[in-house]
Amino acid sequence: MTTYKSDLLQILSTRDYIHQTTDAEGLDELASKEVVTGYVGFDATAPSLHVGSLVQIMLLKRLQQAGHRPIVVMGGGTTKVGDPSGKDESRKLLTPDLIQQNIAGIRKVFERFLDFDDPKTGAIMVDNDEWLGDLNYLDLLRDVGPHFTINRMMTFDSVKLRLDREQPLTFLEFNYMILQAYDFRELNARYGCRLQMGGSDQWGNIVNGIELTRRMGGEDELFGVTTPLITTADGKKMGKTAAGAVWLNADQLSPYDYWQFWRNTADADVIKFMKLFTDIELGEIDRYAQLEGQEINEAKIALANATTAVLHGEEAAKEAAETARKTFEEGASDDNLPSLSTGGEIGVLAALTGLGFCASNGEAKRKIKEGAVKLDDQPVSDPQLLVTVAGDPVKISLGKKKHGLLTA
User: Fold this and answer.
1) Residue 176, annotated ligand binder?
2) Is residue 346 part of a domain?
3) Is residue 79 part of a domain?
4) Is residue 182 annotated as involved in ligand binding?
5) 39: annotated binding-site residue?
6) What digits encode the pLDDT tens for the residues 29-70?
7) Are residues 321 and 346 in the same domain?
8) Motif 'HIGH' region in this chain: where (predicted)?
9) 3-state SS record for the chain
């Protein structure tokens, strides 16, 4: 592993964030001498980000931990277009009002991860609609258009892969890379931003931004860093579960369910996720890496506690851990378990899908047939069962790890 002079690249390297860099040596030299301002962009396609965005949030956190200044760019402008990267079809276009509502929901998460008040390295949050919304189309064509060639744009993965799969790519989406490149130019001019970071699918967009900024009179020393695609040990994309996305906002996913997501991490992923998503010291992570068999559960609990504490606070992490302990060790139910209001009666299949334990009625039926479903710790064998909830909540369980409460 390469040893770097700067804390920034040393942290990113030792915790396995780096997939590609445009100029690692140059960035290392700059970051060892002065405060570097860097950004990551987030489009506002939903009222909350999910775990799939967490590695990029952590990049900004690592940047600040190393003594540099992070910029969170909310894509109020680019969301109106839609990023085609990694997509087989066009995104649904959102109204401006809905985009702003989504941005308001997303903002809350960053206050947990970043310090916005430090006079030297305090994070900045901006909306790229501030500059993109005021662009005149003819001016954009004249000022920016000459710096892009169709030949080059056709080689980028976001375009090439879509066309190779014979999926339509709209002219609207084709412009996305131009707008994202313009973001870097604007951030460099406004804030002296020298670094753009993102996932591996953003490499082409990042390179475009560097080249456009230089050509339009920006600084020559500009840099890009991408992270690898984060997948689980079974090859699935990080954050995708049978029950849907693992949201970061508490009103979209309870702290307990968030804790459980990390507690259920596969053995092979625990150490990787500790490095990427927690502040647990590397020496301590090395100790966890030596655990085998049932002892690995100690590492999983540490991972769940650390990730939940960063997002929801220490108290929420403690409550989730205690709820899990009571549920698994004592067989008790607890008010902190995820709950579903039934109106007094609900089918067992609807309960399992409503709590997100199963993605479909078909899956729920299979789980019942396998004997994996229990009501108040008693096995369920009838998929047509109606559950009556009159007084106390009824505990419903799927396997040993998923538990919820059915309330009246």
Assistant:
1) yes
2) yes
3) yes
4) no
5) yes
6) 999 999 999 999 998 888 999 999 999 999 999 999 999 999
7) no
8) 44-53
9) CCCCCCHHHHHHHHCCCCCEECCHHHHHHHHHHCCCEEEEEEECCCCCCEHHHHHHHHHHHHHHHCCCEEEEEEECCHHHCCCCCCCCCCCCCCCHHHHHHHHHHHHHHHHHHCCCCCCCCCCEEEECHHHHCCCCHHHHHHHCHHHCCHHHHCCCHHHHHHHHCCCCCCHHHHCHHHHHHHHHHHHHHHHCCCEEEEEHHHHHHHHHHHHHHHHCCCCCCCEEEEECCCECCCCCECCEECCEECECCCCCCCHHHHHHHHHCCCHHHHHHHHHHHCCCCHHHHHHHHCCCHHHHHHHHHHHHHHHHHHHHCHHHHHHHHHHHHHHHHHCCCCCCCCEEECCCEEEHHHHHHHCCCCCCHHHHHHHHHCCCEEECCEECCCCCCEEECCCCCEEEEECCCEEEEEEC
